[in-house]
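Incident log, structure service

09:12 report received: a user says their structure output differs between two submissions of the same chain.
09:20 pulled the input from the user's history:
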Amino acid sequence: MIPDWKGETAVAIASGASLTQDDIDYCKGKARVCVVNDNHRLAPWADLLYACDLQWWDYHNPDFAGQKWTVDGIAAKKYNLNHITGHSASGLSLDKSFIHFGRNSGFQLLNLLAHADVSRILLLGYDFQETNGEKHWFGSHPFPLHNMTRWDSSIKAINGAADDFKTLGIEVVNCSRNSAITAYRRSTIQEEL
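09:34 re-ran on a clean worker, output below:
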């Protein structure tokens, strides 16, 4: 069942190389904290972990106490995860029975949070570019996991969802230290929380 976080603030944490442990720690106890993929290692106390790929779950299958979500039906059954169906389409899915893919897990988490009826989403680690020559704070995903080589379509998807968030009354603030995402107000996590 999709979380009921109506009116709450959620921090969505992606794996950009600008992400810092200090920024993550600052969020603890101040908002709903939701992590994508490997970020559970920096915030094992987070409320929610989202990873779309069966390969990622097969490789990691972390011991994580919060809610675990995926769009992959096989991974959901194999690892007893919460499951939501996904579709390829532009913008956010406004139908709570599924989310749109947006070409990356970070986008999918944002669509899930929109379904949770949060009033505000703060982005951390949504770099969508190389920062100091790195794609992620942890370097590259190990083989056989996929590493993003081009961000254009993912950036277009996240920027393109800005009007949908406005329609839903959800404020999105980009608190990432470095980011190619341009459609949302920029700030810091310390100023917003």
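09:41 both user submissions now match this output. Likely a transient worker issue. Closing.
09:42 reviewer note: Helices lie at 21-27, 54-60, 73-79, 105-115, 152-160, 162-168, 189-192. DSSP finds seven helices and ten strands in the chain.
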